[in-house]
Amino acid sequence: MLQIFFSSPVAFLVLASALVISITIHEFAHAWFADRLGDPTPRSQGRVTLNPLAHLDPIGTIMILLVGFGWGKPVMFDPYNLKNVRQDVLLIALAGPVSNIILAFLLTLLLPILPFSPLVWQVVITINLALAAFNLLPIHPLDGGKIMSGLLPPRTAVEFDNIMNRYGLLILLAMLFFPIGNQRPVDLLVRPVMNGLGLTINWLASLIQGLFF
Fold first, then answer.
1. 154-177 vs 143-151: helix crossing angle, rounded to 10
2. Which pLDDT score, from 0 to 100, does residue 150 have?
3. CA–CA separation, 123 vs 134, rounded Å?
4. Domain extent listing, the chain
5. pTM, two decimal places
């Protein structure tokens, strides 16, 4: 990211803005769903808002600038306030990636009539798809870990959580920083998901655009 800043400040501004938008939408979706499912915790902490300042984690933001990988401030919720804990936790976790996919779809759909260069919006679309695909990896502390726990049978989910709570972060760091050959393991998993989401979104958007534009 810093290399981009020194080589092209405009490109850096576009990329940084796209990251802020994507992370904000992602964390807001978690907070909104938790609030709608009966937990007042996110609202009491000021997280049910589209204000980016409520969702950006200082260390995670610095990491994005330094190494191109970071995170937003996790949305805290109390499972004891949820009616159906397993189902509701799954929905709260799923809300983040799904919100990024929906935003990518809407931008792709409206691309012919959006202001500014299409390249600007393509950056936002790509980052949203990347954020969604990355967070769907079934590893704690990512959303995909919680989604996997909600999909597994209860007893298996407990065993999965025990393993992931111990080793999930180590596995994730290894996938990010220890490449196999010339590629990181995380890229080998995320790129096919990104490509699949991108093809599906483009197909749906083209179908709808053919009817209305």
1. 160
2. 95
3. 16
4. 2-212
5. 0.92
Q: What is the pLDDT of residues 37-92, one digit of tens each?
A: 999 999 999 999 999 999 988 877 776 666 666 678 899 999 999 999 999 999 99
Q: Which residue did the predictor score with more confidence, 46 or 119?
A: 46
Cβ proximity of 30 and 48 under 8 Å: no
Answer yes or no: 27 catalytic.
yes
Helix (H) or strand (E) holding 187: helix 185-212
How far is residue 36's CA from residue 25's CA, in Å, rounded to a whole number?
16
CA distance 46 to 190: 31
Annotated catalytic residue: which of 14, 22, 27, 127?
27
Q: pLDDT-based confidence at 3, cuts 50/70/90?
A: low
| Residue 56, helix vs strand vs coil | strand
Where residue 165 falls (left for φ over 0; alpha for ψ -120 to 50; beta otherwise) is: alpha
Task: Please say whether the beta carbons of 130 and 194 come within 8 A.
Answer: yes
SS (H, E, C) 71-117: CECCCCCCHHHCCCHHHHHHHHHHHHHHHHHHHHHHHHHHHHHCCCC
